[in-house]
Amino acid sequence: MGSEHHFEVTRDFDGLRLDAALAVIFPDLGLRARRALWHRMDIRVQGRSCPPAFKVRAGQIVDVTPRSDVGKRKTAVTGIRVVAESSLFAALFKPARVHSVRGKSPGSVEEALTNLFPGECPVLLNRLDYLTSGLVLVGRSPDARARYLELQESGKVLKTYLALVDGQADHEICIKRAIDSAKRNKVRVLSADNSDPIRHTMVTPLGRIGKHTLVRAAIRKGQRHQIRAHLAACCYPIVGDPLYGKPGVQGDNAITMFLHHLDVRMPHFHAFCLPNWHVDVRGFLHQNV
């Protein structure tokens, strides 16, 4: 992914934006991912550096090369680190209170990619909520992203989370209820089930911690807030969840939202990372291997 790319703009892309024309050499990257290339690649048209909105013309030559300063740039975010990696994928640890995707305020996992993978064009494969800690997957090439999506659609990606929930959960449950994830702050759990098993949440109690229960929640293809909303809908809200938590354990006074992406498995790749909670969960995990 760190190699140079050169192509001539065809008539099909005449008059379109440069970030759209880059689909010629990065067909598996979405528009947002193509725009992110400017943070780690030098992109020129007819030898001149151009922004994403530049309108290209048929016959122009586009050059895409790794930036020479990539390895020298430092991330503004501390705590992000590589947990596991292969030629196609990598898994990073994201601390709580760090955004996954670049936003208006500085500091995100996406911004750290340039420094962690110099000379490459890595792309995020999943996102975690701001208050959720744990594993974020990275594709190290467009082929990696396409492969991940293929594996996910076939149910071959297994993501396991740890959550500390309010109440006493004492048996394993498979939550099948469909989720309305229309653009709103909170998603809505519907009364009807989702017939697609890769959209279900499997919840396994691991043990009691005071008035709460430590659970393992496994998903294969998640939706926004799926675990948080599913647990709350079953009367087991996550401790510290400001959106779905019960009165008395939610809001800004909660030091931690106890949801952590612990483990991810797919063919030829595995990553595991314990949470930085004040609660020691290792004993519970060893008892429930």
UniProtKB/TrEMBL annotation:
The keyword Isomerase applies. Gene3D superfamilies: Pseudouridine synthase, RNA-binding S4 domain. Keywords: Isomerase. One of its GO terms (molecular function) is catalytic activity, acting on RNA. It comes from Desulfoplanes formicivorans. InterPro entries: PsdUridine_synth_cat_dom_sf (IPR020103), PsdUridine_synth_RluA-like_CS (IPR006224), PsdUridine_synth_RsuA/RluA (IPR006145), RluA_PseudoU_synthase (IPR050188), S4_RNA-bd_sf (IPR036986). It holds the Pfam family PseudoU_synth_2. This is Pseudouridine synthase. Belongs to the pseudouridine synthase RluA family. Residues 94-233 form the Pseudouridine synthase RsuA/RluA-like domain. One of its GO terms (biological process) is enzyme-directed rRNA pseudouridine synthesis.
